[in-house]
Amino acid sequence: MLSRRLIVCLDVEGGRVVKGVQFVSLRDVGDPVELAQRYESEGADEVVFLDIAASAESRGTLLDVARRTAERLFIPLTIGGGVRSVEDMAQALRAGADKVSVNSAAVARPALLTEAADRFGAQCVVASIDATRDTRGGVASGWRVVVRGGRTPTERDAVDWAAECVERGAGEILLTSIDRDGGRSGYDLPLTRAVAERVSVPVIASGGAGGPEDVCAVLGEGEADAALVAGILHDGVTTVGVLKDAMEAAGLPVRRMERGERRQ
């Protein structure tokens, strides 16, 4: 069985890491380069930088941060937020990213995923999907896709869209429950499991981590390949080491990487 990954997310705005609830009420939590290095030293498997502002100016700032971070990190780095074209993805990869996450632009023009996979390889393309429970009952799975930072609902079924993303070339799915984001009430296990059972690529669960038990639940019952965590680490609620110890105790395969080991 493949090792389950613990991925730390750093939401970046204006060159600083911020955190909020459901993408609003943001607060400053630190320097992205320093935090990335700290979480790597604690044992994180990967780091994700997400550009919260997603403007051209903000993206330039993020790319500069990514360059400085990539020079010091040995673990994989993913960049996302405001990626609208293959050229945007190329800039992120040139800045040192190992993978690039694309969200709203892929929903608007799904061919972007195929173009990116053809140019860079599926292993570099992460389809980021923000999903919310459909209270209208208008989609088959019960979850619909939302875009623009979780603020704009679409008519797309989240599970069907995940499957289409993979068909179009995405090598990984980053699945965020907007309903759970920042609430620390646990991941949306039914949503994560529904997507994981539908697609053939790794699924990263995001939104709702409150502690070690939530991480273990989404990697076990939720069938995710990786768990994304943010606020509980930034606020000192727990540590990467504690989370990995809990994963191991729960019988989940965990990778212990020594600092200086090559990025893969």
Structure write-up:
With 264 residues, the chain is of the alpha/beta class. The chain is built from 10 helices and 12 strands. The protein has helices spanning 32-42, 56-70, 86-94, 104-108, 111-120, 158-167, 189-198, 212-220, 231-234, 240-249, and strands at 5-13, 16-21, 24-30, 46-51, 77-80, 99-102, 125-133, 143-147, 152-157, 172-177, 203-206, 226-229. The chain has an 8-stranded parallel beta barrel with strand order 1-4-5-6-7-10-11-12, surrounded by 8 helices. The two termini are 18 Å apart.
Look at the helices and sheets and give the structural class: alpha/beta
H and E order: EEEHEHEHEHHEEEHEHEHEHH
How large is the radius of gyration?
17 Å
**Shape, principal axes of CA atoms:** globular
Q: Give the neighbour order of strands across the main sheet.
A: 1-4-5-6-7-10-11-12
User: pLDDT under 50 segments (min length 5)?
Assistant: none
Largest sheet: 8 strands, parallel, barrel
Number of strands: 12
Mean pLDDT: 91
- The total of helices stands at 10
Instruction: Indicate the percent of residues in helices.
Output: 25-40%
Strand content: 25-35%
Q: Assembly type of the shown chains?
A: single chain
N- and C-termini, Cα separation = 18 Å
Topology:
Elements lengths: L4 E9 L2 E6 L2 E7 L1 H11 L3 E6 L4 H15 L6 E4 L5 H9 L4 E4 L1 H5 L2 H10 L4 E9 L9 E5 L4 E6 H10 L4 E6 L11 H10 L4 E4 L5 H9 L5 E4 L1 H4 L5 H10 L15
Helix pairs in contact: 1-2, 6-7, 8-10
